[in-house]
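Tutorial handout. Part one gives the primary structure; part two gives the three-dimensional structure as tokens.
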Amino acid sequence: MQEGAADPGLYDFSRYRDRPKIVWPGGKTVAVWVAPNLEYYEIDPPANPLRKSWTRPHPDVVGYSHRDHSNRVSHWRMAEAMSRHGFPGSVSLSVALCQHHPEVVEDGAKRGWEFFSHGIYNTRYTYGMDEAQERAIIEDSIATVQAATGQRIRGWLAPALTHTPRTLDLIAEYGLDYTCDLYHDDQVQPVKVKSGRLASIPYSLEVNDHYGFFVYNMSPRDYADTLIRQFDRLAAEGERSGTVMCIPLHAYLIGQPHRIGPFERVLEHIAADGRAWIARAGEIVDAWRAQTGDAA
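Part two.
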């Protein structure tokens, strides 16, 4: 084996068909959580030597203004559709949004949404940070969200999915108890950390609207059909042991006028099916811990 190619040891191997049975509240077979990414992108961010913030030269007026549609218009369209069908949000939050556009954060809090950190800005990356810098981001996230919403964050999704080798250990040390940064499973799973405890809750790249529209070039109807097929399969497999479906969203994509209709039909399908436990991320982790002996 080549040096450096060893298993990083983040979690143990666990064969899907040999696991203990998980039953979600009410006998539901699949826990469904919706993860709106409420983000702030700087028009001319500081340069990171390891990754460009924008594909165009800075300032990227096009990229910035496209994403600003979320906070001006499409957040409200997306949030209203979710509320109509009984779906709370578990928010992947660019914490700086609390200062830039507090109205958006306040709206989510009034709807009973849960908040976790997606870093400070989605245009500032963890790559190359030392430990003190990374600790400062975590501490800022905890304090800022607490002040803005009254909630202490429980989860983490790294800004722009960027990490250091110490990220998971640090968030566990600070008392956060779930990460969305591992895409390795369709059930909640334990993560190995130096201190404390940490669970990996299924987040999704495959049915993330960013991948659906930017990477896979799906039409709104294709994306909606993908979500329904994802749900139906996980609900069926959850008869054996409860599964988790995450729907990660970006309002400037899913909240566009030509996309919101097919997406709302997905919410109608899941809500009417009868097999879904529609929940927040923290509730899903708590229910899993209660059944697996991982409870505090």
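Part three, for discussion. The CA atoms of residues 45 and 123 lie 6 Å apart. The mean pLDDT is 91.
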